[in-house]
Design brief:
With 481 residues, the protein is mainly beta. It has two domains: 2-48; 59-441, Pectate Lyase C-like. The protein is built from three helices and 34 strands. The protein has helices spanning 2-18, 23-49, 123-127, and strands spanning 53-56, 89-92, 95-97, 113-117, 139-142, 147-149, 158-161, 168-171, 182-184, 194-196, 198-201, 216-221, 229-231, 234-236, 240-246, 251-254, 257-259, 272-276, 281-286, 289-291, 296-301, 306-314, 317-318, 330-335, 338-344, 347-349, 356-358, 362-363, 368-370, 373-375, 388-389, 392-393, 411-413, 418-421. Strands 1, 2, 4, 7, 10, 13, 16, 19, 22, 25, 28, 29 and 31 form a 13-stranded parallel β-sheet that branches. The protein has an eleven-stranded parallel β-sheet with strand order 3-5-8-11-14-17-20-23-26-30-32, with no helix packed on it. An eight-stranded parallel β-sheet has the order 6-9-12-15-18-21-24-27, with no helix packed on it. A hairpin with a 4-residue loop joins strand 33 (411-413) and strand 34. Helix 1 (2-18) runs antiparallel to helix 2. The longest helix is centred in the first third of the chain and has 27 residues, at 23-49. The protein is globular and about 85 Å long.
């Protein structure tokens, strides 16, 4: 139909040129043609340029071309990426898939490719042929490296979105060093990848586990991908929850839960939550919750020299480590490296060891450890002299503006793991005792503005007199056309 439209306009132009119409007639006809072109383009341009919709459904028995639910691609490895263009959306129906989702096309910074778990409230996929409301269920990818970037360049500006908590779950069996739920391969230079609402699971549960090899749930084993964002996801069940063997500028890791990486055979496989061995630029690590873990919360190092990047770590919580009163869990440790670290407004409870730099490691000049709560936990230790202040401790401390002897009643519910602070203002309570930081740090995990009452608080949460707040989620149901 579009071709027919242009053919008719061309014929009309030829008619005007061929016959001896008067000047007045030609002007009138050209005006009519102009109006016709404008009106036609306003109708057809959105259709020509609109984003495409593609469909994946386990067990589909149609033409396997992805055009609707009847003819959906019936496995992850059946997606024909040659058909997918920047701006398109690939809709995933719930079910268990046994092949890897491997992004085979790149979007652009202004026109991303989206891979989304479908929701019953999504108008376009719910209107596609073959729709069934049962498709709005968890998408499970049950294979090693279930979400995998295997190309060195393909797969930039791709968003993989589970839409709801654990909407997509990728499970690794953890049988090799390369095992991972999500993996970016060596030499990759992707940009602009976003992962959200993904349950990245290893073989272990809440009890200590005998691991077969040093598996990871998120493995970035590349040549520094840039602007990688991981948010609203769960990472659990492997020796290392996050392994960064090369990460570039713009890494944002926020609103995630990390837990359950306790190894019975810890002498063989050292369990760590986040390990970074090489990076460049700025890393933002904020609003994450860590629990039931054994050793490091974040470890920077394992390579000598400057890590090459700045870490901004704020608004996080570490609590309930594995091992009880004799645990060796800690929030942050530097090994064999030098790094610039801004460690602000975090809350730590019941950790056996505090922040430290060992084996020649050091915090670079300008690093700061401010506005944190160390309750029944080790505080700043080796290598932190001169960079700590405005922190609250359940024991004594020697900081100029620090708080000593903070009671558990400073939390809404210490026993219930509700680490929001109470309204009390007193010498040993964290409200209004913080240091005012730059505006990029002025929001807490629940979206409450720090210092709105005139002074910053200490800890992950700013005091708020309202009911519990759920951090705002990214919008759903949006389309770029």
């Amino acid at each position: 139909m579009i071709r027919e439209l242009w053919d008719r306009m061309a014929a009309l132009l030829l008619l005007i040129a061929r016959y001896n119409f008067s000047a007045t007639q030609q002007i009138r006809m050209k005006r009519v043609l102009f109006v016709f072109v404008v009106l036609s383009w306003s109708v057809w341009f959105p259709i020509i340029c609109s984003a495409g919709d593609w469909y994946v459904r386990k067990g589909a028995t149609g033409s396997n071309n992805g055009t609707d639910w009847v003819n959906a691609w019936n496995e992850m490895n059946q997606i024909n990426w040659n058909s997918v263009a920047a701006g398109d959306t690939i809709w995933l129906a719930g079910g268990t898939y046994t092949t890897s989702l491997i992004p085979g096309k790149s979007g652009t910074s202004g026109s991303r490719i989206y891979v989304k778990k479908v929701l019953a409230t999504d108008a376009v996929p719910a209107a596609a042929a073959g729709w069934n409301s049962s498709y709005d269920s968890q998408v499970v990818i049950n294979t090693d490296q279930g979400i995998y970037w295997g190309s060195s360049t393909t797969g930039s500006y791709v968003t993989i979105d589970g839409r709801v908590d654990s909407g997509i779950k990728s499970i690794t069996p953890g049988t090799s060093w390369n095992s991972a739920s999500v993996r970016m391969e060596q030499s990759g230079t992707q940009a602009g990848v976003t992962l959200q609402y993904i349950d990245m699971a290893g073989p272990a549960g809440s009890d200590p586990y005998t691991f077969v090899d040093d598996c990871k749930v998120l493995s970035i084993y590349t040549s520094a991908p840039t602007n990688l964002t991981v948010r609203y996801s769960r990472l659990h069940g492997c020796v290392d929850q996050v392994m960064l063997l090369g990460i570039g500028d713009g890494f944002v890791f926020e609103h995630n839960k990390l837990y359950d990486n306790n190894a019975l055979n810890w002498q063989t496989f050292h369990p760590g939550t986040v390990a970074s061995r090489a990076c460049s630029g700025t890393m933002v690590y904020r609003y994450n919750e860590h629990y039931n873990y054994s050793v490091e919360g974040i470890m920077l190092g394992a390579n000598s020299g400057d890590q090459g990047c700045t870490w901004k770590i704020y608004g996080n919580i570490w609590h309930s480590p594995y091992g009880g009163a004799g645990n060796v869990a800690r929030p942050l440790e530097l090994q064999y490296c030098s790094s610039t670290v801004y460690f602000y407004n975090n809350t730590m409870t019941d950790l056996g060891i505090g922040i430290r730099a060992l084996n020649g490691a050091s915090f670079l000049p300008g690093s700061q450890i401010y506005n944190n709560i160390f309750y029944n936990s080790g505080g700043p230790g080796d290598g932190t002299t001169g960079i700590t202040d405005y922190n609250a401790y359940s024991e004594s401390n020697s900081e100029t503006h620090g708080i000593a002897n903070m009671p558990s009643s400073a939390f809404i519910s210490y026993s219930g793991n509700d680490f929001r602070i109470v309204s009390t203002i007193a010498s040993n309570y964290p409200r209004n005792k913080g240091y005012t930081l730059a505006s990029e740090y002025n929001t807490d995990p629940n979206g409450v503005t720090r210092g709105a009452d005139g002074a910053w608080d200490i800890g992950a949460y700013e005091y708020d007199s309202g009911p519990p707040i759920t951090a705002p989620a990214p919008p759903t149901g949006l389309r770029i056309e």
